[in-house]
Design brief:
By secondary structure, the protein is of the alpha+beta class. The protein is 42% helix and 14% strand. The chain has four helices and two strands. The protein has helices at 2-6, 19-29, 44-49, 53-60; strands spanning 34-38, 65-69. Helix 2 (19-29) runs parallel beside helix 4 (53-60). The longest helix is centred in the middle third of the chain and has 11 residues, at 19-29. The radius of gyration is 12 Å and the shape is globular. 10% of the residues are buried. The mean pLDDT is 85.
Length: 71
């Protein structure tokens, strides 16, 4: 959260059964233009076989810049 503040962003904590859907819905509702997220360490094959929340988030926000940190 401190990195987001350092970059001039507003950190937001959301709750929901589907993380990607909750973030995408918030981003659309509030006209977010840039999302900064962290990535857990998953192998490339695992991401191809079963896309995770980050993959679904990027696919669900085609008009939003998504920056991924870590992983």
């Amino acid at each position: 959260l401190s990195l987001a503040r350092q970059l001039g962003g507003v950190p937001v904590e959301l709750k929901g059964a589907d993380v990607a859907a909750a973030v995408a819905e918030y981003a659309r509702r509030t006209a977010v233009t840039h999302v900064l997220v962290g990535r857990s360490r998953r192998g490339r094959l695992a991401r191809v076989l079963r896309p995770g929340p980050l993959d679904r988030l990027v696919a669900g926000l085609p008009d939003v810049d998504v920056t991924v940190c870590g992983g």
